[in-house]
Amino acid sequence: MSISDNNNNTNNNELMFTAGSRVSCLTISDEMFTGIVMAYDYRYRILTIKSVSDDGLNRHCNMTFVNLDNVKQVTILSAVKPEMAATSNLLPLMTDCIQYRLNQAINDRRNVHKAFVSGISDFGIQLFLYFYKIFDKSGVNLADKDIVVNGMVKIRPPYQLKDCSNMTCEPYIETTALRYVRKHLNNFLSKH
């Protein structure tokens, strides 16, 4: 990666990724990202750049995460003045939170795949995802084509209110868990 400075500042290396600096990055795939530096993670060499929104709305902006290992050239368009740099220390990115969200998204996709492979209808998959978002993610499972909520309520195809039953006691007894699941199922059915 090469670094060039349009302002010809010689002592700019420590300021090149200071919040507020304008930079332009050319990636190895010849994509150009230009904007204001918002954050920089030294450990992972990830630069966060804020730029004008693609949709043209003033209240929106694009936030781009650039991995500097995949950058050919960085051009510093305007650097933050040294007296301003002392007050704008960059905090590291919260990569643990990003990793958690990535793992959660992967688990969500695995559950959709699991539902699809088990032969559940599209309506059943939508219902499964609806309950998966509402209840604790570990509390909604699939048992063949049935949706099991918290190990207490089973919803069988075709996934209507009459298809909900208790798993912990007699099926005809209406428990609090069964009423709660039926309430959410009714809510889902009214929207679809």
Describe this structure in words.
It contains 4 helices and 10 strands; from the N terminus they run ββββββαααββββα. Helices cover 29% and strands 29% of the residues. The chain is an alpha+beta fold and 192 residues long. About 3% of the residues have low confidence. It folds into 2 domains: 92 residues, SH3 type barrels (Roll), CATH 2.30.30.100; 96 residues, no CATH class.
How many β-strand stretches? 10
The string of secondary-structure elements, in order, is EEEEEEHHHEEEEH
Shape: elongated
Tell me roughly what share of residues is in helical segments: 25-40%
With strands numbered from the N-terminus, the spatial order across the biggest sheet is 1-6-2-3-4-5
Q: How many structural domains does the protein architecture include?
A: 2
Output the radius of gyration: 26 Å
H/I helix tally: 4
Quote the average pLDDT: 83
Largest sheet entry: 6 strands, mixed
Strand content: 25-35%
CA distance, first residue to last residue: 52 Å
Class per helix and strand makeup? alpha+beta
List the uncertain runs.
Answer: 10-15
List its salient traits.
elongated, 192 residues, SH3 type barrels, alpha+beta, single chain, six-stranded mixed sheet, 2 domains, 4 helices, 29% strand
Condensed summary:
By secondary structure, the chain is of the alpha+beta class. Helices cover 29% and strands 29% of the residues.
Helix and strand arrangement:
Elements: E1 2-5, E2 22-27, E3 32-41, E4 46-52, E5 61-67, E6 71-78, H1 82-85, H2 95-117, H3 122-134, E7 140-143, E8 146-149, E9 153-155, E10 164-166, H4 176-191
Parallel strand pairs: 1-6
Antiparallel strand pairs: 2-3, 2-6, 3-4, 4-5, 7-8, 8-9, 9-10
